[in-house]
Amino acid sequence: MATFAKPENALKRAEELITVGQKQEALQALHDLITSRRYRAWQKTLERIMFKYVELCVDMRRGRFAKDGLIQYRIVCQQVNINSLEEVIKYFMQLATERAELARNQAQALEEALDVEDLEADKRPEDLMLSYVSGEKGKDRSDRELVTPWFKFLWETYRTVLEILRNNSRLEALYAMTAHRAFQFCKQYKRTTEFRRLCEIIRNHLANLNKYRDQRDRPDLSAPESLQLYLDTRFEQLKVATELGLWQEAFRSIEDIYGLMCMVKKTPKASLMVVYYGKLTEIFWMSSNHLYHAYAWLKLFSLQKGFNKNLSQKDLQLIASSVVLAALSVPPYDQSYGASHLELENEKERSLRVANLIGFEVEPKAENRVALSRSSLLSELVSKGVMSCVTQEVKDLYHLLENEFLPLDLALKGQPVLTKISKLGGKLSSVSSVPEVQLSQYVPALEKLATLRLLQQVSQVYQTIQIDNISKMIPFFDFTVIEKISVDAVRRNFLAIKVDHMKGAVFFGKQLVDERSVSALSIISVEHIVLSLINKIVGYLRSIEAEGLRDHLSLFAESLSKARTMIYPPAKKAAKLGDALSNLAEIVEKEHKRLLARKSIIEKRKEEQERLLLEMERVEESKRRELQKMTEDAEQKRIAAEYEQRRNQRILKEIEDRELEEAQAMLQEAEKRSKRKKKPVLEGEKMTKQVIMELALNEQLRERQEREKKLQKFAKTMDHLERAKREEAAPLIEAAYKHRFAEEAALHEREQQQEIELSRQRHAGDLEEKKRLGRMLENKRILEERVVISREAEFNRLKRERQERISQIIQARKQEREARRKMIFFLRSEEERQKKLQEEEEARKREEAEIRKKEEAEKQAKLDEIAEKQRKRMLELEEKERLEKEEILRRPTAVLPKPTAEPPTLGGRPTELGGTAPVPAAAATAPAAGKYVLRHLRATVDAAAPVAPPPETDRWGGSGSKPDDRPSWRDERKPTSFGSGSRTSWSGSRR
């Protein structure tokens, strides 16, 4: 570790090392100086050193060095000059940002260069494999190597600065600025992983701030400036999260803002709360929480109406319409119906939590809590006058869906209203938090609500209705979608519907529908007759409650059904006993299978129960053994503890005995030193070392007091004696003083006269010397001018010679430097040319090697294929030979063919054009060497005279050998036909 007398020396040394290219040594020297304990007092030189230090850290991408140096510098200037730390950190972030931007500008493919999942992760395994396999790097890989490291360093810079500035009241503004820049970095480059980590870092900083309240320089969140900075940071985090589409992180940001407000117990400004509720509406809409979305819109409407003085009437209408449509989009049934008790409790807690986030007060007692609901929301809309601000289309839709009773025309009348509503919306000029409102987003939910309302009203009027009629009533969806909506409503206990696709009907009501209820279908067929009557009755009974209305309409439908039955009596139906008996066997079989399955399930459950009991017994046995082992271990520990306790007691007793002996020895020594006749009395074993030490100390104190008394008496005696001496010597001293004063006065007078005389004599001599030297004054001036002129001429001559010499040296060095540059350029060009030639040669060799390897592989594959085919052919021939032999053995009277007979199937050798060439008989009976002959024909072949085979034709039809000596696989022969009593013919083949 280098030591410097002054910080300036370290800075000078670092600049020298940088000049010669040793940046690492320069960084280490500055790091040693900054972390040294000798320079803990702030001075301006340290700031310049820090500027140079962060430059080196950024240039070399040394994030850990930068963090250590900034932490040490924070310690130095925390209490003296905190602005210096701010300047250094700002300069550090500026350098890192500039280098990252420079690298980004140099890269042409930014998206590919930044395509990494995590900036803090190392290289992926596939990247390492690719770097070893591929010899040359593509442009995308070079971009990755150029851009990604600098963005990693920039991200590390933001983390380092936030860690250094955290929980410091003097650096709150810089901390907020750094957080905002980090948010913008994540937003600009779509860094979702880093954004989540950044939010977690800021969240942990606030948690530590609340956890450790005794920290020095801790920020005070109750101060308006600090609270505003923290809130601005959280709101910026919320905005960036929504822009990046990280809705879960956005909700956590909302919770952070709410927790901060609860911590300081102060509501932020209305402008911030508008942003708060505006983002809440987006979050709840993306999470399909329509109820919370509507409540957030209601709070946003209240804030805009109460605090925004520049709000226009058009913007107010759009916001109010959004509130009403969001409230109508909430499903009209309870989402938690049918859930377990635990799920209901969790839902209550969740509703309470969201209600607190939105800002609605809920009863504090658990049994009195009323969660947010659709009915309370709609009543609140009416009470707060929201309905008076909406557009006419929204009012019409609200009255149609909530107040009108139109079981047949509800959807048809609502469709044009929804079409008009879908065209409403646009940009808000006077609301900055919600720049644009589009009411078309609520149309699908409103169509679903209209479907549910129509089904609900139809169920109050009819018991049965045809599927085709429902499809005509609801033009929004197909019946499959209507069926899904109905299933969800039935599951939530909102409707009681049964769909029978075989009969093409839908049944309403909780009771089961039998075959006789099908007659109610005829009511729909005469609907045009009684439609006016039904409308009048419905209008009359509209004010009655839902259940009463339903009973009245049900009775009316039953009466109409009975009347129609009396007018048109149904045909008598045959007994269904035969149909029931025909399916009886199948029903019994199904019931038998069900019982067998139930029996097997019961057996499996019994086995599972037995297995569980055995498992429990085994667990109990293991627990008992563990307990027994623990008991034995505890007993051993107790015995060891008792032994240790007895040993400690014995040691303590020995120590006490030793101390008693030492105390007795000290007491005896004190008795020997004491000169008094009276001695302290020993009390045997009761006299301890402490008591004896107290006695000895008392004795020493007594002796010290006696010595002090003697010294005081002696000092008093000496005082009296000295006073008497001085009284006697006083007159003698006065007489001696007067005599000495007279002598010194006479001496002074005499020496003064002598000095005056000597001064007069020196003055007279000086005047004579002046007259003598005055004659040479002119000559002295002439000599001085002559010397000055000659020296000036010599100086000018030397100066001219030096300038000429310097110019010659500069010219020589310039020529030498130019020659060196030309030589270096020539050498580099030659190296590049040689390298390029070498690379081309290596590439050519690699291509030739690959081609040769490919040809060898193809050749080997062909050889293997031919060998495999030949092996299969031999196996087939052996199998045929075995079969022929068995056939011959089964025919004992068979006559062997004559040796000279030609095979009936092969009359001659096949020629190139498909003809038959004549073959001699001997040649026919004696096949060529190497050709296969059946075993029962070998005797006749051996008896015949060997005849040379005719010359084979090559693949071009010529005779003789082939033009080149190729491997044997090119001359492979393939059998064309074979059989019992016939000669096998072969033909050349080449693959």
TrEMBL record:
Biased composition (Low complexity): 977-991
Keywords for this protein: Coiled coil, Cytoplasm, Initiation factor, Protein biosynthesis, RNA-binding
Subcellular localization(s) per the UniProt record: Cytoplasm
Listed GO MF terms: mRNA binding; translation initiation factor activity
Signal peptide as annotated in the record: none
Region (Disordered): 835-866, 881-920, 942-991
Domain PCI: from-to ranges: 316-513
Keyword Coiled coil: yes
Compositional bias annotation for Basic and acidic residues: 881-890, 962-975
Coiled-coil ranges (or none): 93-120, 599-673, 697-724
Primary localization: cytoplasm
Example of a GO biological process term: translation reinitiation
GO CC, any one term: eukaryotic 48S preinitiation complex
Protein's UniProt keywords contain Acetylation: no
InterPro entries membership: EIF3A (IPR027512), eIF3a_PCI_TPR-like (IPR054711), PCI_dom (IPR000717)
Family designation: Belongs to the eIF-3 subunit A family.
Subunit note: Component of the eukaryotic translation initiation factor 3 (eIF-3) complex.
Identification of the protein by name: Eukaryotic translation initiation factor 3 subunit A
